[in-house]
Design a protein that fits this description.
five-stranded mixed sheet, Ribosomal Protein S5, domain 2, alpha+beta, 3 domains, 23% strand, Heat Shock Protein 90, 543 residues, 12 helices, single chain
């Protein structure tokens, strides 16, 4: 008897769904399906509505017939658009599982050629197909004549949504729209999604005619742009396209090299789409990664790495030259003066924050470290020098009869902390968790272009950056970097950014017990306190 290769349909379906683990990924999958299926050459209008436990994606694309829906729900089937000769994002027909990355129900309502069809897939039906056989797509409306315009509505229900999902979906869709290279209209709730390319201060091109990437008849051009500020993970890197479709965004292993986070760009390599070799350049998921075992991909990665490193090294050398100038040194001196004020305040704030946390009986393991990198020695078991001592109720009079406590002059174990010379170890407390500590705040000036914000905060490095190109900062700088207007504004901007940063530190430390109202109050308190430290700049005599 012949042995046949078979697939467990339900398991296959849910495994493909596992990649879609955020609302943003789910929404983009159905949006991109809409954009891939326009009516003729008309731009597609697509709307995503994210509500409580529900996501709805509607479009005015060409719609699907009953036969189209049958094909739509065929796992790993041929893409209809590709069969017709059109290069589109979809390849293996796995995207229809997207809803079940987070949800339990997906309903598809579609109109095409004056006929309406409505079908639904439920998780319970998928999971019931334990023997691996096909599971049911429930049909509610079949070929119902209608005057409705062509288009499709996807209703995803019983999904856990959060308030932040709307913003994250907006950002995710906008980034991908910019890489889609076609003009369509997408709305996220009431927001029009529009891609805005990051500002850049330099653009370089690299051309190759080397096989297997390109040829003399069809050279490939890489464009690399340099942003004046570090880019987030969703924006940095090179978009690798093939005939207009993005397949990966990568820094080709240079992710941890200095200043690489400033680079972005794109390259279109038709050979990837045209490759019919035994090892395909793409896989059958939405992983956003090319296949590193494919010969074209290997050559592409090597070429991109060489080009990116050339740009990065040039950028690094220019940055070092800039820092060596007299003006840069004076700016850094001013930044260091401001940073010293911030760090003195932060040290005082941290002590008070720890003491308050201890007095409330909170687990110091969750609040003391504040995300620092180096181990902080806390009082308790151990013989390392500690900057704090434990404090508790005052000593009594030596009586065990329950009399009132009297004053004491020796530190004793308790729930609070105060500055002092103590001993302990990096683990402190019960020794169950490591408390980390990082150095204080850093402040730097940067040229981030006038379109960028006045300042920004890098939470990972506790660094505040002031944008010298911002119109307000640039105007104050006209009198020179040693002028009172420039220095006053620098302090004001730094103090404001610092106050917001302290609230972030408090939120990170408190975790689930964090209250947004507490942060608002803290911002006001910190800003009032720290601004007093810069009052000398407003005195009559020149500072």
């Amino acid at each position: 008897m012949a042995i046949l290769v078979k697939s467990h349909v339900a398991r296959d379906f849910l495994q493909n769904a596992a990649f879609f683990n955020t609302v943003a990924k789910i929404a983009w999958e159905y949006v991109s399906n809409s954009l891939d299926n326009p009516r003729g050459n008309q731009p597609v209008h697509c709307r995503v509505q994210i509500g409580d436990g529900r996501i709805v994606v509607t479009d005015d694309a060409r719609g699907m017939s009953h036969a189209d829906l049958e094909h739509f729900f065929t796992m790993h089937g041929e893409n209809v658009q590709r069969v017709a000769g059109k290069v589109v994002r979809g390849r293996f027909g796995t995207g229809k599982s997207a809803a079940f990355g987070l949800a339990n129900t997906s309903r598809v309502s579609s109109v095409k050629d004056g006929l309406k069809n409505v079908v639904e897939v439920r998780r319970e039906d998928i999971e019931a197909a334990r023997d691996g056989s096909p599971f049911e797509v429930r049909a509610f409306v079949t070929n119902l004549p209608t005057n409705e315009l062509a288009g499709t509505m996807i209703e995803i229900e019983e999904v856990q949504t959060k308030p932040g999902d709307i913003l994250q979906t907006k950002q995710y869709v906008e980034r991908h729209l910019g890489r889609y290279r076609q003009a369509h209209h997408v709305m996220i709730n009431n927001h029009v999604a529009e891609f805005q390319e990051p500002p850049f201060v330099e653009e370089r091109s690299f051309t190759t005619t080397s096989a297997p990437i390109a040829s003399d008849e069809a050279p490939v051009v890489l464009t690399v742009k340099t942003s004046p500020v570090p880019l987030d993970e969703g924006t940095r890197g090179i978009d690798i396209l093939s005939r207009g479709i993005v397949h990966e965004t990568t820094l080709v292993g240079l992710d941890r090299t200095e200043l690489i986070e400033h680079l972005f760009g794109s390259v279109d390599i038709p050979a990837l789409e045209d490759d019919n070799g035994p090892i395909p350049p793409f896989d059958n998921t939405r992983s956003g990664r090319l296949n590193p075992a494919n010969a074209i991909v290997v050559a592409t990665y090597a070429w991109l790495a060489t080009c990116l490193d050339v740009v990065r090294r040039n950028l690094l050398e220019r940055d070092r030259e800039r820092r060596r100038t007299a003006e840069a040194k004076r700016l850094q001196q001013e930044a260091d003066r401001i940073a010293r004020i911030l760090n003195q305040d932060f040290d005082d704030w941290r002590v008070e924050f720890k003491r308050a946390a201890g007095s409330l009986g909170r687990d110091l393991g969750h609040v003391v470290g504040l995300g620092d990198d180096e181990a902080e020695v806390l009082p308790g078991e151990g013989d390392e020098a500690a900057d704090f001592v434990m404090t508790g109720p005052p000593h009594g009079e030596g009586s065990s009869q329950g009399g009132p406590a009297g004053a004491g002059d020796v530190e004793r174990p308790g729930s609070g902390l105060k500055p002092g010379l103590g001993t302990g170890g990096p683990r402190g407390g019960d020794g169950s968790e490591r408390r980390a500590r990082r150095g204080g705040f850093a402040l730097e000036y940067e040229n981030a272009t006038e379109a960028e914000a006045r300042s920004r905060y890098d939470e990972d490095h506790r660094a505040i950056y002031i944008n010298l190109d911002h119109p307000q900062i640039a105007a104050a700088r006209h009198g020179g970097i040693d002028s009172r207007p420039f220095r006053q504004l620098s302090y004001e901007v730094a103090f404001t950014e610092y106050s917001l940063a302290v609230a972030r530190e408090m939120a990170r430390a408190q975790g689930a017990i964090f209250d947004a109202q507490d942060a608002i109050v803290e911002i006001g308190l910190v800003l009032n306190r720290i601004s007093r430290q810069g009052s000398f700049l407003y005195e009559d005599s020149e500072a």
